[in-house]
């Protein structure tokens, strides 16, 4: 009985202790919860008070801005009005849009004060200024011209005039706000569709800036840095990019007679750009892509197009003497009447292109590849085409006098009327070519091979040493006149060739007319 009584007392004690502990835990939890609720309520009260204070400050600023705006409207003294306009810069959020729109009716003096007020707000004013500028440009672009035959006020004309003033006023503000930013800040700005005609951005650092469809006509960007800039569809009429750096820039669809003398356009994209008449003297376009690009009549003397890609590009009548374009890839492009004198085109490839009547005296095109390309009437005296591969090309009427075609391979080419007098064709192979009225007078043909060629009308070989020259599987038209010296007897001739050369008259053999 004593043991049972002791156990019951122990149990009772444990229950009491547990009850007390639970009560204590509940009390602590409630205390902590009350503290948390109190802190949350205090925080909410503080936030409510802060918002209320902020709202009161905003209303106060709005009231002060409204008072200044009324003062601008009521001011009769120009000096007072301009000072009041300047004071509005203290309230950018409340007054910025009003200041910008007021440019539409502001006098020249007031416009200057407005511009100063906006500029004093700093780069934060740039997005709203750009937005207002775009709206003004859109109004100017879409509004119909006034009809003078209709009576009454020309309301639409007035709107256009005001929009024009806003457009012109915001242009200068945008340029100045842009220059307040560092280069990273400028790269983050989107100036698509902005009119920056005539802007002075010389030497500005504008790498990666976005100028899509931006109008830059007459703008000065000389020595500017535009690495990786986006100028897709930009207007570049008269834009000055002299010595500007635009490596990797995207000028797809850009248009205008740009002045980019000595500019760096390495690896730039000029696809579908319309740059006829552009000045690109000594410009660097190494690795650039020019797909469907129009450079008609452009000036490119001394320009660098090494490893550039020209696909269906138009470069007719370009002035490109002393062009450096080794490894250039040209397909479906038109370079007719181009001046390529002293150009360096070693290792370049021309396919399905037109080089009709190009002027290329002293041109160097070692190891060049020309396929399905027309050089009809081209003037290429003293050109160097050593080891060139020329396939299915039209060389009719071309002047290659005194040129060096040593080791060249001419396959199925048209040599009608081609002048190769005093040219060097040592070791060259002419396979399946059409040869008519071809002048090889005084040429060097050491080790040359004529294979499967069709000779017609007249072949001038006067003064040519034919020793070791091979004629095989060639055809010789009836009535063909061959003018050659006695050395033909030392040539390597098949039966058809021997018969054709054997018909040479004694006068012709002696080299007479």
Automatic annotation (TrEMBL):
Stretches for region Disordered: 41-60
SUPFAM superfamilies: Pentapeptide repeat-like
Domain of life: Bacteria
Protein's name according to its UniProt entry: Pentapeptide repeat-containing protein
Organism lineage: Bacteria, Bacillati, Actinomycetota, Actinomycetes, Micrococcales
């Amino acid at each position: 009985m004593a043991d049972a009584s002791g156990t019951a007392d122990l149990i009772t004690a444990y229950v009491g202790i547990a009850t007390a502990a639970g009560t204590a835990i509940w009390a602590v939890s409630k205390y902590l919860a009350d503290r948390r609720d109190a802190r949350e309520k205090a925080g909410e009260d503080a936030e409510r008070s802060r918002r209320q204070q902020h709202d009161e400050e905003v209303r106060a600023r709005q009231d002060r801005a409204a008072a200044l705006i009324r003062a601008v409207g009521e001011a009769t003294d120009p000096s007072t009005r301009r000072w009041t306009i300047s004071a509005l810069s203290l309230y950018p959020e409340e007054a910025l849009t009003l200041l910008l729109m007021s440019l539409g009716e502001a006098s020249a003096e007031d416009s200057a004060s407005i511009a100063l007020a906006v500029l004093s707000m700093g780069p934060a004013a740039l997005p709203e200024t750009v937005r207002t500028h775009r709206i003004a440009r859109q109004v100017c672009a879409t509004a119909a011209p006034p009809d003078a035959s209709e009576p009454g006020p020309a309301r639409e004309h007035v709107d256009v005039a005001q929009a024009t003033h806003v457009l012109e006023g915001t242009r200068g503000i945008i340029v100045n706000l842009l220059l307040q930013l560092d280069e990273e800040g400028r790269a983050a700005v989107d100036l698509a569709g902005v009119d920056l005609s005539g802007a002075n951005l010389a030497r500005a650092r504008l790498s990666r800036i976005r100028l899509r469809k931006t109008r830059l006509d007459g703008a000065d960007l000389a020595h500017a840095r535009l690495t990786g800039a986006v100028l897709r569809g930009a207007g570049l009429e008269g834009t000055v990019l002299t010595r500007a750096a635009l490596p990797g820039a995207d000028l797809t669809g850009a248009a205008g007679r740009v002045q980019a003398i000595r500019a760096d356009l390495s690896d730039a994209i000029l696809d579908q750009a319309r740059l006829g008449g552009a000045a690109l003297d000594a410009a660097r376009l190494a690795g650039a892509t020019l797909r469907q690009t129009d450079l008609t009549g452009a000036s490119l003397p001394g320009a660098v197009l090494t490893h550039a890609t020209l696909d269906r590009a138009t470069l007719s009548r370009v002035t490109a003497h002393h062009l450096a374009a080794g490894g250039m890839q040209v397909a479906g492009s038109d370079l007719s009447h181009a001046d390529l004198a002293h150009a360096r085109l070693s290792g370049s490839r021309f396919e399905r292109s037109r080089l009709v009547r190009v002027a290329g005296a002293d041109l160097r095109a070692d190891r060049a590849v020309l396929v399905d390309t027309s050089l009809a009437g081209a003037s290429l005296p003293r050109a160097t085409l050593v080891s060139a591969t020329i396939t299915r090309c039209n060389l009719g009427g071309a002047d290659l006098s005194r040129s060096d075609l040593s080791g060249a391979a001419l396959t199925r080419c048209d040599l009608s009327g081609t002048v190769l007098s005093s040219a060097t064709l040592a070791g060259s192979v002419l396979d399946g070519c059409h040869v008519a009225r071809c002048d090889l007078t005084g040429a060097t043909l050491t080790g040359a091979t004529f294979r499967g060629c069709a000779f017609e009308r007249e072949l001038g070989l006067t003064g040519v040493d034919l020793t070791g020259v091979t004629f095989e599987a060639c055809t010789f038209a009836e009535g063909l006149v061959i003018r050659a010296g006695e050395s033909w007897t030392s040539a390597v001739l098949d039966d058809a060739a021997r018969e054709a050369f054997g018909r040479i008259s004694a006068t012709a053999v002696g080299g007479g007319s």
